[in-house]
Each structure stands twice: as C-alpha cells, then as structure tokens.
C-alpha cells in the first residue's frame, strides 16, 4: 500500500542521528514516503524535525535528483529563536559532524551553502572539527580551502586557533614548505587581524628545522619575545634538535643554558636530544656531564637517555663502560629494552666478543626480555666469524626452540656462517628450507653461497648458484657479479670471468672496486700486466666507489715486482700517495721482499720504509705513518733518529709530552 499522503514518524537513538540522511531508509522505499517526517530524540534537548524534499520521487528519479534532497524550510516556520541561534542550528552542526566523521567533504560544502543562504550562525568550533577531519583524510589542501572559505565566503571570524589547526594538518602530512608558505600568507602583508601564539611558533619552527632552514628558525625563535610570546620547553627542544641535525651542537648546548637562565626547565626529551648529538660526535665526557645535570635538575634519565649513551660508548669501542652503564640502568629501575641489549650485543660482536654477547643474551632472557631476530643474527654471524661454528649452530637451534622464527636476515647470517666454515652443501640445504618457508633469498645470501663453493674449490657449483640467482631476477646486482668475477679469477677461469665482465657492461652495470680489482688480478696472474694497468687507468676515471684502493695497488705492486720492474712499482707507489691512498702491511711486505730477494746487493728495506714514513708525515697522514713505524719495529728495523723526532712532534701534543717526561723523571729519581 502506497503511503503517498501519509506522514510517518520514526524515532531514532543517538547513534542513528549520525546516519547519512541521503542513504535509503531501512524497510521502507523512499518512493513511498511523501513527505517523510523524522523525529530525532536526544536526551534533555529540543527534538528538531527534518522534512525532506517535498518533490515527489518516482521510481524513475535519477541519483542526481536524489542528491539534491535538502532540509525543508517548513520545519523552521513559526519557531522561536534563542539569541543569535535559530531552531535547527544544532541539527546543521550534527550533519557537519556526521559528514566530517565519514569524510564526505562535498556534503559538508552543501550544508555550509544552505546555512549561508539561511543566514545561520557559523562558529569556529565547527570548522576546527572539519580541519581535523581533513587531517585524518590526509587532505591538507582541503583544510586550507575550508580555512579561506571560512572568512571570505561564509563570514565566520577566524582566530589563531583555527589557523593553528590547519597548520598542524599540513605539518602532519610532512609538507613543511607548504606550511611555511601558508604561514607567510596569513601573517604577511595581508594579516588576518590576529597574531601567532606559542603553538604557532612551535609548529613553524619545527617546519623550518625539518626544511634545514636553521638560521631562519633561530630568527623566528628570537622574534617570539617581541610578540609577547615566551618559548616553552617544546620550542627549545625543537630548535636544539634542528641545530644538532646540522652539527651545530655547541649552539644547541648554549641554548640549554639560556633556557635554564630564562626559567624554562628542560625535560628528558631536551637532554636526550643533546646527549644523542654529543654521543654521535664522540664527545662522551660532555654527554655524561649532561646526565649529571639531569639529576641535579630533578630530571630522571629514561631508557632513551641510557640507550643513547650506551650506543655512543659502543661506537667508541668502550664496551666495558657500556656494560657498567647497563648495570646502572637496571639498578636505577629503568628497564632495558631490545634496543639496549641489541646495541651492546652488536658492539661486542664487532669487537669479536660474541661469547660475551651470548652471556648478555642469557641475562636479557632472565630479566623477561625476548631477543628478536636481529640480535640472533648478529650473534650467529659473530660466532661464525670467530671460528666458533658449533656455538653458532647451537644458538641457531635454541632460537627455534624458544619460538623465535628466523627471517631473511637470520637465514642469510646462518648461510654465510656455514660457508665461512667451508660447509656450502649444508648451507644450500638451509637455503632450500628458507625457500620452502616462503622466504626469498637476497643478494647477500646468494653471494655468501657462491663464496662458499669457490672457497671449497667447486667453481662449477658456484656458477649454478649464479644461474639460480639470475632466474630470481637479480641479474642487476653488482655485488653478486663482483663475487662471481673474483671467484672465477681466483680459480684461474679468466675466460669465463671476461664473459661475466662483458655481461655486466652490457646490462649497464657499473663495476665496483672489487670487480675491477678482481679482473686486474686475473689479468696479472696470466702475465697480462699491461692489460691490467690499462684497466687500472680506466678505473681511476670512475666515480669514487669504483676507484682503486690499497688492494688494487697491492695487486699491481706484486705483479710489477714479480717482473723485476721495481722502478715502475715505485712510480705507482708515488701515484698512490698522491691520490690519498695509504699503504698497509701487505704493501710493506711486497717491497721488503723485493728489496731483499731481487736487488743486488740485497737491502733490508729500512731506508725505504723510513722515507715512506717521512713522506706520509709531510702529507699530514699521521695514522698511516704510525702504522708503518709499527711494521718497522716488528721487523727490528728502527727508524732514523730524525724520523723519530718528526713522528713525536707530529703525533703528540707538547703539553702531554712534557707531562710524560716529568712522570718518567719522577719514577726514575723520585
């Protein structure tokens, strides 16, 4: 039965109030309702009534016609007004809130147009709700459009509160350049009649720091007191972080003193920013003083503070101090997390103390912390590198027993370790297990397996691994190509190496220093030294990562000296020094052996190395000079007295020399 001349009243709960009124009503055809009156009851509030369009909608009505449904003016006739508000204003606000929640901004524009035509009151609060919805929808441009329409079209007064809301939306999207342009537009020549407040400055300083415009951020910061706006702890912390990112740590530390003088108390975030920067710079003594300063200010270090200091100590190789700090952290009732333990374990592994890392792992588990895959990966890799393969395999099994499933990184570390232990066949079995569990090996895994087979002397199997890798569409990986080239050249398969070389160039790959050095060695090993030198000269013209290193030079030194071409080798050594590449112990061995066995009369090489030390000192390469001196002493070839004098003057501070001499005198005659 059609209800074309009936009026139907439906009662909704609060949740139904948020329903899109343009959606079809449940259990009723909208074509049967003409007109439809809906009573929306809310507790302790006047119940407004909605009248939908009085235009009858037939079954032939189009969706566009339905979208034109609007609130009927009949509901507002003969109704009282309450101050500047009219009956039904709250209904409009609820509609806007509904559409903002569902992110239907085109409907919001329709409601705003209707409110404008009826001369209804628009408040800043409802626009701030719209701006927040734009932020959740990741539409900063839409927020700016609503902001401009707010004043220009809808005549709603803007304040700094609505401006900050839009500015925050833009910054949350990471468009810092747009944020600063918006700020300049609003507070430029055509000012909106309100001034920026503390939140405005905090947001814009953050944007400038993210853009790397630190000087401009500092100028904005200095402008704040002139606008009767005092910086807070967030302002200072943001600017300090920006300065530290630009390596202007001293200015950031000065800012800490300034904020305390101004009566603004720093919080843990403030201190952590500075401690992190100082630790990364290796200035651990100043970082430790800041921690003491924290305690003096009643600011308790948190896990971020401790993790930062521990990371800095590990970078400097001071693992024992890092371990002491870990104990202090626990005694301070600050719970170490996976980052803390992972940092220390990784530092121990780098110092070839993987066993100590395993003890830390056990301590970690006793304190209720579970190790992640990366911690296991670091330990397994470290144990294998230290030749403790049995312990590594045991840890691999324990990892599975404790419910920590290996990922690509752990599988790669275990495969690499087995290959280092000359067990590539077992490593290949692990690779198959990895594939069966749906993990795709990366270039590192394939490279490790290839190295393992080459090391075992099974170059044919290594080539098969290469072909399998090619089938996985990894043909464009330079590292894998370099490993293959090196293995082929080491096993004397120069012809195949040349084929791979041609393939690399044909694919547009740029050989790295390993690939070049491998080919040069392969050519030199078969006596084609001139071809090797030609490739070396080509290498010198490449980008930095492909230029010769000490390994490349040593290959050519060895080849030239074997041909009794010492003069040419020394010329190449001069070129090496000019290029800023320093010799190592192998360089010394090559020339010393040549001088002893291929020169008549034989020389012990003392004068040769002594001159090399002097030349390095003249170039201010002190550490390299000291390494050569160490090589000389190990071979009982002491430098000349004049060279000793140069070494001491260039490498020791005069004040420290005097202190050392005085200390020696006291011990001898005191």
Automatic annotation (TrEMBL):
NCBIfam families noted in UniProt: PPR
GO (cellular component) term, any one: mitochondrion
Family annotation (Pfam families): PPR, PPR_1, PPR_2
GO MF annotation terms: RNA binding
Record family assignment: Belongs to the PPR family. P subfamily.
Keyword tags: Repeat
Coiled coil: none
PPR repeat spans: 197-231, 232-266, 267-301, 302-336, 337-371, 372-406, 407-441, 442-476, 477-511, 512-546, 549-583
Keyword Repeat in annotation: yes
Biological process terms in GO annotation: embryo development ending in seed dormancy
Keyword Repeat attached: yes
Organism: Cucumis sativus
Protein name: Pentacotripeptide-repeat region of PRORP domain-containing protein
Source superkingdom: Eukaryota
């Amino acid at each position: 039965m059609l209800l074309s001349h009936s009026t139907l009243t439906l009662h909704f709960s609060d949740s139904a109030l948020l329903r899109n009124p343009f959606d079809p009503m449940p259990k009723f055809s909208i074509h049967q309702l003409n007109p439809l009156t809906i009573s929306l009851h809310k507790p302790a509030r006047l119940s407004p009534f909605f009248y939908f369009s009085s235009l009858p909608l037939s079954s032939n009505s189009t969706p566009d016609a339905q979208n034109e449904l609007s609130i009927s003016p009949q509901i507002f006739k003969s109704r009282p007004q309450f101050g500047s508000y009219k009956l039904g204003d709250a209904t409009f606000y609820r509609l806007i809130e509904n559409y903002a929640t569902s992110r239907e901004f085109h409907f919001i524009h329709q409601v705003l147009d209707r409110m404008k035509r009826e001369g209804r009151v628009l408040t800043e609060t409802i626009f701030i709700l719209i701006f927040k919805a734009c932020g959740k929808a990741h539409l900063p441009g839409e927020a700016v459009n609503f902001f401009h329409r707010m004043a220009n079209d809808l005549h709603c007064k803007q304040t700094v509160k609505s401006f900050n809301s839009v500015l925050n939306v833009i910054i949350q999207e990471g468009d810092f350049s747009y944020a600063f342009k918006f700020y300049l537009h609003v507070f430029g020549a055509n000012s909106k009649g309100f001034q920026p407040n503390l939140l405005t400055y905090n947001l814009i300083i953050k944007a400038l720091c993210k853009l790397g415009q630190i000087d401009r951020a500092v100028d904005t910061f200095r402008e704040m007191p002139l606008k009767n706006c005092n910086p807070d702890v967030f302002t200072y912390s943001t600017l300090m972080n920006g300065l530290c990112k630009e390596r202007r740590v001293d200015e950031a530390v000065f800012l800490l003193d300034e904020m305390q003088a101004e009566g603004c108390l720093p919080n843990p975030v403030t201190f952590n920013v500075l401690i992190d920067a100082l630790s990364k710079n290796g200035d651990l003594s100043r970082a430790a003083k800041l921690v003491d300063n924290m305690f003096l200010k009643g600011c308790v270090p948190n896990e971020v503070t401790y993790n930062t200091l521990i990371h800095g100590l590990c970078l400097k190789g001071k693992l024992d101090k890092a371990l002491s700090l870990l104990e202090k952290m626990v005694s301070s009732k600050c719970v170490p997390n996976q980052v803390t333990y992972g940092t220390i374990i990784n530092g121990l592994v780098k110092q070839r103390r993987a066993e100590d890392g395993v003890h830390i792992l056990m301590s970690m588990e006793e304190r209720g912390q579970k190790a992640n895959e990366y911690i296991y990966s670091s330990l397994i890799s470290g144990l294998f590198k230290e030749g403790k393969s049995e312990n590594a395999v045991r840890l691999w099994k324990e990892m599975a027993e404790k419910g920590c499933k290996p990922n690509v990184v752990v599988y790669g570390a275990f495969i690499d370790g087995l290959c280092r232990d000359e067990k590539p066949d077992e490593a290949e079995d692990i690779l198959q297990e990895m594939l069966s569990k749906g993990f795709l090996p990366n270039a590192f895994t394939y490279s490790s397996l290839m190295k393992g087979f080459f090391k075992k002397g099974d170059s044919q199997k290594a080539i098969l691994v290469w072909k399998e890798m090619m089938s996985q569409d990894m043909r464009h990986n330079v590292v894998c190509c370099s490993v293959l080239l090196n293995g082929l050249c080491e096993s004397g398969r120069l012809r195949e190496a040349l084929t791979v070389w041609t393939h690399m160039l044909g694919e547009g790959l740029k050989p790295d220093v390993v690939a070049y050095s491998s080919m040069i060695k392969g050519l030199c090993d078969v006596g084609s030294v001139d071809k090797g030198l030609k490739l070396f000269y080509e290498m010198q013209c490449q980008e930095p990562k492909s230029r010769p290193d000490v390994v490349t030079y040593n290959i050519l030194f060895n080849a030239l000296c074997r041909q009794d071409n010492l003069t040419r080798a020394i010329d190449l050594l001069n070129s090496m020094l000019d290029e800023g590449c320093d010799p190592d112990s192998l360089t010394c061995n090559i020339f010393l052996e040549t001088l002893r066995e291929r020169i008549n009369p034989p020389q012990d090489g003392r004068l040769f190395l002594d001159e090399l030390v002097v030349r390095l000192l003249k170039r201010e390469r002190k550490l390299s000079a000291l390494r050569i001196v160490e090589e000389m002493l190990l071979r009982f070839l002491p430098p000349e007295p004049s060279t000793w004098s140069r070494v001491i003057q260039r490498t020791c501070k005069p004040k420290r020399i005097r202190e050392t001499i005085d200390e020696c005198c006291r011990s001898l005659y005191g």
